């Protein structure tokens, strides 16, 4: 077990209950929460369902940064509800156009040593300032706002020792891509990453935040940097020096595993389609034609990232036929670029200026053309996430992105032929907090007609007569389960959004997944989903559990289920099971039956769950599953979900 680490110290300071051994459940007190609009509407509806008059955290902030495209009234209806429910419940509100939640929270509210959970999987960005910041489902965030502790497995801590310093044209994005090439996107459930070593001091907080942001792609619970002189410098520039607290691991700190990365050996890297861990050097990709370059997102939308692009492009022009989009991560960054003339340099170079929001990172605009390459400074390149089926999406640093925008093909920025510009951090960041709306106790909550209610679920029955509705393979993401893009505006309308569950696997002329699942539900049986490795990786969207629950799914069985999705399944009364014998995955096909007798009696921590597999030919076989359910999880499953509890 890791000892004397920053992570251990923060957990100890917030410990409520549980056993401090890796893998055992512990409950911790939560200081801060954040929500964004795509997940927040349901979170606040759930908070209302708990009859909580006012949030009980030190700080809760509701951001609007995802559903900005107002094609129809749905998104704006959500914004109005979020604004008024925030005012009523004691939550700070960040309106559309103010910026991306993770960057804004880091800049304006992050406090070293505090705990933060957010209804977005990239909440670990806050680890760049020394917070224990964790992504979670909306219901878990609502519970934290209601004053309840947050439950996690006590983590194994992977120590990443950084030495040396980054060379010109190499970036923090290349560091996290290097780590992804080592740890990959799977097999890290229940772990946290802590950075230490002499190289840490060479990285300012925004670069640390780029690295912790993409810890989400590793599948770890959180990623944390110490709080040191660089942290104080960042907070001073944000006029928040009073929030500083030094936080470091003990000199003799012990980690469960140590990985060493020499920063001076890092080269420009790219994640190739269609997974963040498919990493190759940019030099290997040199010469591949690129049609679109996008710079921004919560990963690389900070001042230095955009200023780097503007400085390189000043007096130059993007390659003919190539589209360059720039999306600053926050209103303060955009305003500083306006004031110092860099925005004009970007526009003169041919860049398109996009809104300060998540936008193209979640398939909301800027979808690439068919059979073309898009090069992005984002954090995910799952198949189809751009909004284009069969997309070829690469993830890179701003340095690589701007070099590629100049040449029209993948280009190692070290080959541009001129020095890497030195980008000085502003002595003082522009920080007009008047755009944040403060709570107004007693405010009227406005609920437009497109705002629904959280769907109800029945308690787990004594027997589950299950039918396998779908069988899928490895690395099924929440994007596969619940597509984003144009469908995001349906998140307040569960019956409508449920129609597109597993849309990517539907075949023309055949019943959709939703139709098959609903037919099984209406027949009096329950639906079963069969997955393989790393099922449910990706975002925190709890709709990937809510909508299947609405369609009658009671069981998800796989070889491995990712942390946030597993928690969401439990929260909504779906039983997450693991094959005891991996070969059983191959024995089950869609439309097979799985019967769980006396399932309520079978559920107990550490005990197996058995089912009878019935094939179409009449043959049967016993299938054994394991699970990692705690006593609390079992209580929630039996009740049919946490809202019922």
List its traits.
globular; 19% strand; 26 strands; five-stranded parallel beta sheet; seven-stranded mixed β-barrel; 645 residues; alpha/beta
> Which stretches of 5+ consecutive residues score pLDDT under 50?
none
Shape: globular
Mean pLDDT across the residues is: 94
Helix content: 25-40%
- Rounded radius of gyration (Å): 24 Å
Tally of DSSP helical segments: 23
Number of strands: 26
Written overview of the protein:
It is a single chain. By secondary structure, the chain is α/β, with parallel strands linked by helices. It contains 23 helices and 26 strands. The strands form six sheets. The protein has a seven-stranded mixed β-barrel. Helix 2 links the parallel strand 3 and strand 4 (59-63). Helix 2 (37-49) packs across helix 3, helix 6 runs parallel beside helix 7 and helix 19 (543-550) packs across helix 20. The longest helix is centred in the first third of the chain and has 16 residues, at 74-89. It is globular. The relative contact order is 0.12.
């Amino acid at each position: 077990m890791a000892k004397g680490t920053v992570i251990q110290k923060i957990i100890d300071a917030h410990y409520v209950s549980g056993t401090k051994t890796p893998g055992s459940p512990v409950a911790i007190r939560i200081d801060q929460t954040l929500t964004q609009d795509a997940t927040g509407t349901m979170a606040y509806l759930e908070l209302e369902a708990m009859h909580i008059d006012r949030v009980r955290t030190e700080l809760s902030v509701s951001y609007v940064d995802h559903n900005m495209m107002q094609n129809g009234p749905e998104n704006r209806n959500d914004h109005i509800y979020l604004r008024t429910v925030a005012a009523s419940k004691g939550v700070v509100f960040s309106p559309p156009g103010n910026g991306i939640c993770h960057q804004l929270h880091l800049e304006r509210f992050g406090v070293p040593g505090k705990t933060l959970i957010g209804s977005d999987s990239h909440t670990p960005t806050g680890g760049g300032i020394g917070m224990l910041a964790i992504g979670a489902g909306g219901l878990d965030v609502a519970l934290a706002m209601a004053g309840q502790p947050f439950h996690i497995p006590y983590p194994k801590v992977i120590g990443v020792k950084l030495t040396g310093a980054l060379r010109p044209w190499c970036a923090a994005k290349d560091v996290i891509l290097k780590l992804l090439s080592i740890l990959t996107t799977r097999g890290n459930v229940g772990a946290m990453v802590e950075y230490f070593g002499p190289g840490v001091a060479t990285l300012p907080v925004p670069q640390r935040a780029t690295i912790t942001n993409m810890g989400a792609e590793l599948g770890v619970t959180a990623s944390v940097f110490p709080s040191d002189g660089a942290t104080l410098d960042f907070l001073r520039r944000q006029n928040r020096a009073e929030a500083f607290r030094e936080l470091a691991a003990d000199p003799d700190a012990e980690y469960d595993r140590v990985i060493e990365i020499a920063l001076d050996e890092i080269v420009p890297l790219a994640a190739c389609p269609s997974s963040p861990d498919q990493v190759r050097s940019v030099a290997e990709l040199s010469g591949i034609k690129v049609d679109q370059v996008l710079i921004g997102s919560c990963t690389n939308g900070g001042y230095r990232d955009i200023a780097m692009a503007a400085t390189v492009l000043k007096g130059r022009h993007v390659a003919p036929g190539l589209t360059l989009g720039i999306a600053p991560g926050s209103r303060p960054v955009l305003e500083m670029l306006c004031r110092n003339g860099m925005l004009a340099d970007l526009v003169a170079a041919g860049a398109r200026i996009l809104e300060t929001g998540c936008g193209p990172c979640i398939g909301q605009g800027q979808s690439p053309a068919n059979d073309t390459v898009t090069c992005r400074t984002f954090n995910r390149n799952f198949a189809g996430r751009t909004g284009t089926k069969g997309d070829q999406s690469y993830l890179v640093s701003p340095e690589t992105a701007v070099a590629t925008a100049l040449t029209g093909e993948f280009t190692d920025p070290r080959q541009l032929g001129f020095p890497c510009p030195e980008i000085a951090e502003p002595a003082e960041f522009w920080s007009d907090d008047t755009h944040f709306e403060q709570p107004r106790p007693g405010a009227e909550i406005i609920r437009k007609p497109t705002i629904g209610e959280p769907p109800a679920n029945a308690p787990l029955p004594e027997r589950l007569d299950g039918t396998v509705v779908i069988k899928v393979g490895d690395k099924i993401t929440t994007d596969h389960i619940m597509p984003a893009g144009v469908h995001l505006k349906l998140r307040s309308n569960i019956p409508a959004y449920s129609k597109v569950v597993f849309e990517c696997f539907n075949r023309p002329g055949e019943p959709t997944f939703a139709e098959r699942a609903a037919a099984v539900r209406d027949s009096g049986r329950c639906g079963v989903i069969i997955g393989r490795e790393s099922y449910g990786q990706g975002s925190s969207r709890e709709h990937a559990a809510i909508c299947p629950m609405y369609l009658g799914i009671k069981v998800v069985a796989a070889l491995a289920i990712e942390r946030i999705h597993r928690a969401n399944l439990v929260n909504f009364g779906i039983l997450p099971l693991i094959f005891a014998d991996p070969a059983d995955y191959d024995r089950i096909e869609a439309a097979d039956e799985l019967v769980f007798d006396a399932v309520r009696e079978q559920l107990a921590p550490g005990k197996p769950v058995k089912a009878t597999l019935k094939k179409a030919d009449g043959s049967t076989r016993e299938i054994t599953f394991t699970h990692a359910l705690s006593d609390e999880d079992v209580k929630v499953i039996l009740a049919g979900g946490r809202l019922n509890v």
